[in-house]
Amino acid sequence: MTQDFSEWQWVNEPAKWxxxxxxxxxxxxxxxxxxxxHYGYSFDTAHVxxxxxxxxxxxxxxxxxxxxxxxxxAGAMLRIDEKNWIKAGVEYVxxxxxxxxxVTRGFSDWSMLSVDGPVESVSLELTREGDxxxxxxxxxxxxxxxxxxxxxxxxxxxxxxxxMCAAPRGEGFETRFTSLTVA
Length: 183
What we know:
- This protein is mostly beta strands.
- Helices cover 0% and strands 61% of the residues.
- It has a single domain, classed as Jelly Rolls, CATH 2.60.120.
- The chain has a seven-stranded antiparallel beta sheet, with no helix packed on it. A seven-stranded antiparallel beta sheet has the order 2-3-16-7-12-13-14, with no helix packed on it.
- Pfam families: DUF1349.
- This is DUF1349 domain-containing protein.
């Protein structure tokens, strides 16, 4: 996946990451993305890497992570600011891998789908068209054709489009992004 990341930027750059054949990112401990709902707290400390895009776009990525602790998470993200974003990917909950999506417009909501058995990798596609984002996924090398979420996203506002990872309760973990395209 050797790629030019010169136009990309970090929000909460991690201490350890590298770009070469793969993009390796180590999520630091006590990092998260969430706004208010149910838990009453707000976090904007997850590691987000992307490039700013003005309108319609598509983010595709395939990745695998060493998830071990409750809420370890990695995936794709669209971010306008700390209160307007969508993240989708894998979240480790109650000892199991889940494909999940969080949509935040001031307040976060969360939806997830439990995955049976071990999963080597997950592929995601976030497509922004007008005022909507379609989130699709695929497991273990399958193309992202399974619909996970269709959500409102403010149109005509530039958004940082790329990847994210966080370790809300654990000591941190590494994610290997083997493909990543933003167009």
